[in-house]
Amino acid sequence: MKRITCFIPFQNFTQAKVTVENLQREDEVAEIYLLKTPDSPDGDILGCKTIETPSPKSTDCIRQIASASHTDFTLIYTKSSQLSFVLFAVERMLAIADDTHASLVYADHFNQTDGSLTEAPVIDYQLGALRDDFDFGSVLLYRTDAVKQAAGRMDVDYQFGALYDLRLKVSQQGSLEHINEYLYYEIETDTRKSGEKIFDYVDPKNRAVQIEMEQICTRHLQDIGGYLKPSFKHIEFSNGDFEYEASVIIPCKNRVKTIGDAIQSALNQKTSFRYNVIVVDDNSTDGTVEVIKRFTDNPKLLYIAQDKSYHAIGGNWNVAIHHPQCGKFALQLDSDDVYSDENTIQKFVEAFYEQNCAMVVGTYRMTNFHMETIPPGIIDHKEWTPDNGRNNALRVNGLGAPRGFYVPLLRTFNFPTTKYGEDYAVGLRISREYQIGRIYDVIYNCRRWDDNSDANCDIVKMNANNLYKDRIRTWELKARIAFNKQSCK
Asked: What is the pLDDT of residue 194?
């Protein structure tokens, strides 16, 4: 009995022909449907049926797929490039799907780029893997009854986010199983560096897509009990006796080319209150310390030299915020970056009081090393809303920059001792109970260059980063579900 119905995008005959022929060779494939849009050419490929749809990413398309599939499993191929399988790979995916009764199985694969073949491992799915850009690879093998059940619950028509909607809905029914075996070959068409891809979700041209994705994720959180209503704790801002109203925190390691610019930017600020600048150096060996010491005659500068134990960025922040000379508000300045003008600190502190929030996130401009604006330009995170921002924060991969924190509260949470995601973890925790404020003026220049920690990560490093952020989301989502249950008692 043939057990799989396949659905593949159809852009042109050359693109589809090889994929169709490879699928037709598989004994388990019953039928193949081509997903044709108004832009697709006329004509058919021998042995294939067609579905006319506005977009393969639309709710209309998912409903038609659910209606057309009458086999045990539904295979959706999400790319328009050529697809081929490792020997017996399809049988392997079916075996795992049968053994686990998963709603979806997906696998590691190989990427073909400019004639070369590279491994493309993906990561395990978990409760907090809510990113709409989670990488499953391009071959998604769904249990058909899960697809039909999910499609039956789709009561909103989406233009861009239906595959995301499908994934979240089927995850409520059963597991999403990662087969960590290399089972197929796909052609990689996005060859940008990791440091360019990570800003796609905040590119203004993708705003309409992001609005849909937020709606889909919010609905999912409501379904599973993780949605938080817009109710926040009030802050009096009277805890502690602080010599300084604010402190700029600059953690650094081996940033000899940029640390001087960052420090000067912080020292140049104009405020109506006292502030200082805390530079925490984590055992630099490239001359960074010598640059820092050029500024130590300035009474505003506090230099902390870390010991030889492990600190990472989170640990450097913890040393700074627990120092007795730390101000009431701790404001971020990465050692690569600079404030956009001399009013950033003043705007930060005013925002805390005006918006009664425990954390403030500003707006930044993307620049190259020479401070010239580069795409996507201004990153304002205007998708954030006071009512739903903390729910949407579980979907996006960051909260924006620069960030400021109310120190008495921050000292009760602390940063995780990690090199990546430490600020995101704290932001999620704060937003569980407290409002996060926003500044939509550009107050920060984010300098992108080859020495950025995320400028050009290999796939193993990117997977590790994404797995950790998904884990942060999982922990926070579990806490929110428990919080809601307790609130209902």
From this structure: 45
- C-alpha distances (whole Å) from 74 to each of 163, 174, 317, 352, 441 are 13, 15, 48, 51, 48
CA distance 446 to 97: 45
Question: In this structure, which topology does domain 4-191 adopt according to CATH?
Answer: Spore Coat Polysaccharide Biosynthesis Protein SpsA; Chain A (3.90.550)
Identify the CA nearest to 414 among candidates 470, 301, 330, 349. Answer: 330
Stretch (H or E) spanning 364: strand 359-367
Q: Are strands 29-36 and 4-10 parallel, antiparallel or unpaired?
A: parallel
pLDDT below 50 — which residues of the chain? 192, 194, 197
Handedness of CA 332, 336, 340, 343 (dihedral sign): positive
Which of 13, 18, 181, 49 has its CA nearest to residue 107? 181
Using one digit for the tens of pLDDT, what is the confidence trace for 39-50? 888 877 878 999
CATH code 3.40.190.10 for 246-458+475-485? no
Residue type, 140: L
User: Residues of CATH 3.90.550.10 domain(s) within the chain?
Assistant: 4-191, 246-458+475-485
Query: What residues form DSSP beta bridges with 119?
Result: 110
Please give the structure tokens belonging to residue 245. 């109203």
